[in-house]
Amino acid sequence: MNPEYENLIRRFEELPTLIAEKRSKLLNVKQQQEEISYRLSKMEKYTAAEVAQETDKDGKKKYTNQTSRDAETLKRLNENNDYQELKKTLEELGRTRDITEVELQKLQDEFRANQYIVKVLQVSRISDAEETILNQERVIEQLKDTIKNLKSRIPEEGRR
User: Fold this and answer.
1) Number of structural domains in the chain
2) Position 124 in a domain
3) Which band of pLDDT confidence, cut at 50, 70 and 90, is reported for residue 156?
């Protein structure tokens, strides 16, 4: 078999494994994103509740309206190193997810293209086989004609 075809078939055979690995990586990244998003949400809610319940020395709410509570919550979250690290990790995971999705799509496209190429090669091989059979049939017909011609040249007595 042609080495080029062998390489194509080898790649075609390994693509499903590569696609499965990318899908697995993508699922893992999505799971990590969900876990971190959940942790961030808990930190945001805890900080917001803490701010909402904070009182001054007279026992009155320190932040009397939603705007001031939101601003203080945001300020505290921006100062929270754990929160900032989690946000940074979530952003990195987002980039990893985007890249992995592109890589997965590329592998899937390559697989579909190779499926088409393999089908074309199969049709080509079938066509080549049909042509070979037709050539062999022509040769057989020519041999029959040659035998017939040879028989016609042999005198009647020698044919017996």
Assistant:
1) 1
2) no
3) low
